Amino acid sequence: MSTAFGNFHNFCRDSTLPVCNLFNESPNKGGADFGGCQQRGISLRGGRVLANLGSMIIAALAILTAMFLIWRSERKRAAVGRREIQLFLLSYILVSICEIITVGGFPLSSNVRIAFTGIHLGAVVASAWILLMNAVVGFQLLDDGTPLSIGLILFSAVALFVGTGYIALDTGYSWTGRFDSSLTDPNRNIGLYVLYQLAPLVFLVLFFLLELLLVLRVLGEVRPILYLIAATLLFAIGQIFQYVISPHLCNASNGRIDGALFQTLFTLLSVVALWIFWSSITEDDWPMFQPAPSPAMVAGE
Description:
Largest sheet: 2 strands, antiparallel
Number of helices: 9
Number of strands: 2
Radius of gyration: 22 Å
Strand content: under 5%
Distance between the termini: 78 Å
Mean pLDDT: 88
Shape: globular
Order of helices and strands: HEEHHHHHHHH
């Protein structure tokens, strides 16, 4: 069955996912778009089509927004996790750049789009991992912003990026032939399914739980939870548009738009809400443990 664990066919039929560019039924490889609603887009010379223009515009806006948030983060010099949140925003910028190429339907050769797809999938996994590490940093197990903290996050994120990217590229280019069976229906690829579909979801759930614990038990605050819940709901709405509503939108609009447009939009709004949440828990009144004054200090006053 195409909906079984590890299979991508039905996902690709009903949604515009970057991973679908790797498989033979993808328009990127001259296929019939998995038998689903095909994006019509804007016709160009040479029979090429510029599809999902709305997603491309929002992705470009996401890049500019993330750059602004990085600048705003830089001004919060005393904030806990400042470098780490900037690292997450940089990874989000990479995801958005790739999204313009892989989801936006930018007219390029098949091989180039496969290369960007490998980068895109790796960046999605790495960015979710970096976000989880931001939650860990909040507990101050290591001093934030130090070479050790940044280095550990970068090393682990790069490992996930390279591993996911390699499987994607080996699938699309058939370097070793190991994943050739996934190129056709039901497009079963366990490695990509676990790394691209499941791992980011696990990372995000753990991030939410850790941040909930941090805010309620450590900081004793309630207001930031509203921002965290808003970010979670916005992201969830985007995924509902991507995986559930997308085929209905595509059919209703005769292939002009699908859920990818709203997924990109709500993900952007989620990232903004997430940054507001981070900013709200890293104000100057962050609880600091102060040692009790010694008798000598008291006597000297």
